[in-house]
Amino acid sequence: MSHNSFGHLFRVTTWGESHGPALGCIIDGTPPGLPVSEADIQRYLDRRRPGQSRYTTQRREADRVEILSGVFEGVSTGTPISLLIRNTDQRSRDYGDIKDKYRPGHADYTYERKYGIRDYRGGGRSSARETAARVAAGAVARKILGPEIRIRGAMVQMGKSRIDPERWDWDAVGTNPFFCPDPVTAERWQDELDAIRKAGSSIGAVIEIRAENVPPGLGAPVYGKLDADLAGAMMSINAVKGVEIGAGFAAAAFSGEENADEMRMENGRAVFSSNHAGGILGGISSGQDIIVRFAVKPTSSILSPRRTIDREGRETEIVTKGRHDPCVGIRAVPVGEAMMACVLADHLLRHRGQCG
């Protein structure tokens, strides 16, 4: 299987399967001399870790990261950083009854059509478990970006229910199980997702990731656009089916006057009246907040019987048991933050390499 790496100067290769002994990543391109510790990485992994509320999979994984290389006496050496996360709570038996059936909505059928073999234990590489390695890599990427560049994410929609932007409160994100910036909506979501979870069903979500204090100039025209790389990074996250930058699809309904982010000078610097562009113009960061949203489909593993086929081409029914997120979008928030960090770190190094 190819294409397990992303990035250019900051390059991440992830490895491992959902039900294998471990997973992890190799990070190439980290500059030397940056303070890196397991504790620095662990704080982000803990935000993604499963089993922290009744609204996520009850698989119990500590997600403890181990640094195997690339760090000496607490600082990066400039050599590849290798990170290991051991799997400790696999229950492969949950998948024994369906090993010859294709789960609708999953990658079972396409994997087998492409490779002639698949890991039916939780989906192998197609499992969202792989994203733990991305979160670990994102923690290292934040070290390159420095404390000035702040990356935060929130779940802004669950199913048809959206937050009220007027009630947006970043402090609320860490106080509820949904990473929701609207405390009123977060309380309503608890009852809604409880009903969905008890019914054995699932629901989708929309996640918004913002990066503040990004300097202007990151990205390159045509084939190195920052927004193109961000869109590709977010689309690579499991279950993501759509990405928009700034106003996104809503911009199609604007007039030219409405869409234009007018500019003026204030205290010797350019200031924008709005941010419909999401902080990126012509593929290059403008200095405004970079705003990316992505849509996550409902978790495909549900208890309702679904029609499908097996490996022999026979029509049958399937019920997916095991431990699954009723709304996989919840834990996609720290994953989206990590992908934003990795892309920005890569572009920051590319910018320095070309422009100094």
Average pLDDT, all residues: 92
Order of helices and strands: EEEHEEEEHHEEHEHEHEEEEEEEH
Low-confidence segments, ≥5 residues, pLDDT <50? none
> Reading side by side through the largest sheet, how are the strands ordered?
1-2-3-7-4
User: Termini, distance in Å?
Assistant: 37 Å
Given the helix and strand composition, which structural class is it? alpha+beta
**Beta-strand fraction estimate:** 15-25%
Shape: globular
**Most strands sheet:** 5 strands, antiparallel
Radius of gyration: 21 Å
- The helix count comes to 7
In helices, the fraction of residues equals 10-25%
Extended strand count:
18
Summarize the helices and strands and which ones pair or pack.
Blueprint: E1 5-6, E2 11-16, E3 22-28, H1 38-48, E4 65-69, E5 71-72, E6 75-76, E7 81-86, H2 108-115, H3 131-145, E8 150-158, E9 161-162, H4 183-198, E10 205-212, H5 226-235, E11 240-245, H6 256-259, E12 263-266, E13 269-272, E14 280-281, E15 284-285, E16 290-296, E17 306-309, E18 315-318, H7 332-355
Antiparallel strand pairs: 1-2, 2-3, 3-7, 4-7, 5-6, 8-9, 8-10, 10-16, 11-16, 12-13, 14-15, 17-18
Helix pairs in contact: 1-3, 1-7, 3-7, 5-7
